[in-house]
Write a structure and sequence with these properties.
Length: 379
């Protein structure tokens, strides 16, 4: 009841809201965040750099969607990264003068928007872009890191434009403080704990599970190397530009399921012995969805995993992002050591309801403070 009353009060105070996201052309953790924001601001106008309706059917529920000139460039709807140098320009082209609140959900370009002083710009920063600030994220192309210096300057300047920062976890808040010299409050993203839940009718299988976009930094190749060595059953859910290479690597014990709907995803979570997360994740919804289904997690001891997985209780953390480190931990892992109820209780701390309430409260508090100061300065 509190949340519903809070939303009603908020709708009276915030007349026009815009939500801005980098690119609307896929489905993943960030897109789930957008759908949660839509519950708070159901009449919000969605702005984005590129929009691919067939790849992003989830976005059709937004009242209005606007995209930049980049949407008309060849291949931009899918291979948007080829146009990275133009994204700041594209977002500067949007006019937000008619809004009272603009919420950017972004890793890189959306925060480059320009808002007039009477419009409050809140940035829910998923992370400062790894490829700009972390040499390791470039993999075999680390030699590019010094050449990206101009883009680090640009990203720093973009990080000065929001009036207020929220972010997904304390790990990312520290990165924002380090790279942008800006404080950031934390609101953990939520998961649908009513949907992602255990079922007494579902029996455990004999396989391990990876749920991930198949891109370089997710390090799915590391899990494939380990399970090629072990010969144990492994299922991989997800798609991405690394798919062909990863399939060539994998032996017959590894099954690629591609993109699946939420029901099939939930069934795999429920049946898996464990869900493996080998990447350095800024936050990561997959470990929480797995735990909500009563399934433990094997994850890299870094980033958001330190805030979502309880070692020895809801999962295990391997210290180094190497084949040897993961292989050792998988060999030591015993699914019977983990109580599904403990996993479930941990996930319930990160419910959608909690996200909606915390986000609404912090936005209203920040807006009141901003407009009070704005009125003082006008006098």
């Amino acid at each position: 009841m509190f949340i519903k009353r809070h939303w009603k009060m908020e709708k009276k105070e915030v007349k026009k809201v815009a939500i801005v996201y980098d690119w609307v052309n896929q489905w993943g953790g960030a897109e789930r965040v957008l759908k949660m924001l839509e519950k708070i601001y159901p009449q919000a106008h969605l702005y984005t750099g590129v929009f691919a309706p067939q790849k992003a059917k989830w976005a059709k529920s937004f009242s209005k969607i606007s995209f930049s000139f980049l949407n008309y460039f060849p291949g931009a709807k899918t291979k948007y990264y080829y146009y990275f140098p133009l994204f700041p320009l594209a977002f500067e082209g949007f006019d937000f003068s008619e809004y009272q609140l603009v919420v950017t959900v972004t890793t890189f370009p959306a925060k480059f928007i320009i808002t007039p002083p009477e419009v409050f710009h809140l940035c829910y920063c998923l992370t400062p872009p790894r490829f700009l600030w972390e040499r390791e994220s470039l993999g075999g192309k680390k030699w590019l890191f010094p050449l990206l210096f101009p883009w680090r300057i640009a990203d720093f300047l973009g990080g000065q434009r929001p009036d207020y920062f929220l972010t997904t976890c304390h790990h990312v808040a520290r990165r924002i403080k380090k790279y942008y010299r800006r404080p950031a409050d934390v609101v953990y993203p939520g998961i649908d704990t009513k949907f992602f839940s255990p079922s007494p009718r579902v029996k455990k299988g004999n396989f391990y599970l990876v749920v991930s976009r198949l891109v370089e930094y997710k390090r799915v190749d590391l899990v494939i190397e380990v399970f090629n060595h072990l010969g144990w059953p492994l299922r991989i859910i997800g798609e991405g530009r690394e798919e062909k290479r990863l399939k060539k690597m994998a032996k017959g014990n590894i099954q690629f399921l591609g993109r699946v709907d939420d029901e099939e995803l939930r069934e795999n979570y429920r049946q898996a012995l464990a869900v493996i997360c080998p990447q350095k994740e800024d936050f990561g919804l997959v470990p929480l969805e797995a735990q909500a289904c009563g399934t433990p997690v094997i994850a890299l001891k870094a980033g958001g995993h330190l805030e979502t997985v309880v070692p020895g209780k809801t999962g295990m953390l391997f210290p180094l992002q190497t084949k040897e480190s993961l292989l050792k931990l998988v060999g030591e892992f015993n699914p019977h050591d983990f109580n599904p109820e403990s996993c479930r209780k941990q996930a319930e701390k990160f419910s959608q309801e909690r996200f909606l309430q915390d986000f609404s409260q912090k936005v209203q508090k920040a807006m009141r403070s901003y407009y009070q100061q704005f009125r003082k300065e006008k006098k």
